[in-house]
Structure prediction request, 64 residues.
Amino acid sequence: MARTAAAKTLRITLMRSPTGYSERQKRTVRALGLRRMHQTVEQADTPVVRGMIAKVVHLVKVEE
Prediction:
């Protein structure tokens, strides 16, 4: 049996501070695993993560 390809991941970097934005956007950034400016995390490319990114796209940079 052939092994399936590894799940695709997204590299997400916090480029702008969520300070001054709504509490909901701050929580979304935190839920993505981002704590500090210019920190990069890898998340699975799922509809849930894509939706979270869409809500804070002005704060983050995304690489496939």
In short: The domain at 9-63 is CATH 3.30.1390.20 (Ribosomal Protein L30; Chain: A,). The radius of gyration is 13 Å.
